[in-house]
Design brief:
By secondary structure, the protein is of the alpha/beta class. The chain is 20% helix and 29% strand. It is built from seven helices and 19 strands. The structure holds zinc ion (ZN).
Length: 349
């Protein structure tokens, strides 16, 4: 296997067969290039504008996605690809290099807030993160109708492992997204707010694409089950949306019908730390709680003789996420409880 270095304009995402690329984007400071790994398979029934893309490491310190996609590079057989499959195991190569959420040694930008107007086009938005966003817009979006963005909690949040999407108005797009999310086999489906500007998945959803995100683990580790869920979700999406031949069976919480769904759309779902301190878990992620239940405690060691601050559920529901690293900053969301939703919705497999 030869991996070819190309400029984005020289990518071939249309001819039949498999190609492995390093996509070269100009480096901001070093005499060199940022090299983004991209593998494409194009099958005999590929249609213009149709295909699946899966991204790993939109944030640089989230690792289950990159590992799942890297393993799939060796697993997907070109002979089984009917349409178009594009895997980008590490999208944010600069942040991945430093093992950080944002590109801290380059433009200091969060790639998952970089999908804004003028990204990569205006001189003030010309750093690597905005140019990666422009690359995705110009070269990937026109080739795909299914978008999977594999995240994890990094060093801030531990999750009830989930696949996720935003509330969508279009009923059919919404049904297809929910179905795709279910096939990851994860314990939780998370429906989350769509207020943050510049999200990769929000843009894909607005473009009408079947878009699913995930939180596959936490702690800057590689959790085995997170890798398993990631692999399953990508393969199922490729098969069900006509890009890969074959059959796939449901796994884990999908197979035994124990999946839950929680919406974290309202601000009452989130608890920001009122002061900087150390977070202690009391109840695990995935627990069902009532509003006011104590899920964690926040310790202020400068006031060591005072009672720790009880971190209470803001709503009735499911503990979706809570602080991972003990040391938290004032204002950081240290608890997130989602309102439980009926699941699965009608028409979802
Ligand atoms: Zn992330």
């Amino acid at each position: 296997m030869t991996r070819i270095v190309v400029k984005p304009a020289d990518l071939d995402l249309e001819s039949p067969g498999r190609r492995d690329y390093w996509v070269a984007l100009e480096h901001d400071t070093m005499w060199g290039a940022q090299l983004i790994p991209l593998t494409v398979w194009v099958g005999p029934q590929a249609q213009r504008g149709k295909g699946l893309v899966a991204f790993g490491s939109t944030h640089g310190n989230e690792y289950e996605g990159p590992v799942a996609l890297r393993l799939l590079l060796g697993e997907i057989d070109t002979a089984n690809v009917t349409g178009r499959v594009i895997l980008i195991p590490v999208l944010n190569v600069e942040a991945f290099r430093t093992g950080t959420r944002d590109s801290v040694e380059a433009d200091r930008v969060n790639l998952n807030r970089a999908f804004v107007d003028g990204a990569g086009k205006q001189p003030t938005l010309a750093g690597i993160s905005h140019r990666i966003a422009a690359f995705v817009r110009d070269y990937i979006w026109p080739q795909v109708h299914v978008v999977i963005d594999l995240h994890s909690g990094g060093n801030q949040i531990r999750f009830d492992i989930c696949s996720s999407f935003h509330p969508i108005e279009d009923a059919e797009q919404s049904r297809l997204i929910a179905d795709t999310a279910r096939w990851f086999g994860v314990p939780l489906i998370m429906v989350y707010q769509n207020n943050s500007p510049g999200l990769l998945t929000s843009e894909a959803e607005r473009l009408g694409k079947i878009t699913v995100g995930t939180e596959l683990g936490w702690g800057e580790a590689v959790l085995r089950k997170g890798v398993t869920y990631g692999r399953q979700g990508v393969l199922a999406a490729a098969i069900h949306h006509g890009q890969l031949a074959g059959k796939i069976e449901p796994i884990a919480h999908h197979a035994d019908n124990t999946q839950k769904c929680a919406a974290i759309v309202d601000f009452e779902c989130y608890v920001p730390a009122p002061f900087a301190g150390h977070y202690e878990e009391v109840l695990p992620c995935g627990a069902r709680v009532k509003q006011g239940d104590i899920v964690g405690r926040l310790h202020d060691f400068a006031r060591i003789d005072e009672t720790p601050w009880p971190v209470r559920a803001g709503v009735d529901g499911i503990v979706v996420g809570q602080a991972w690293a003990a040391r938290v900053r004032q204002g950081q969301f240290i608890l997130c409880v989602g309102r439980e939703q009926p699941w699965p919705p009608a028409g979802v497999r």
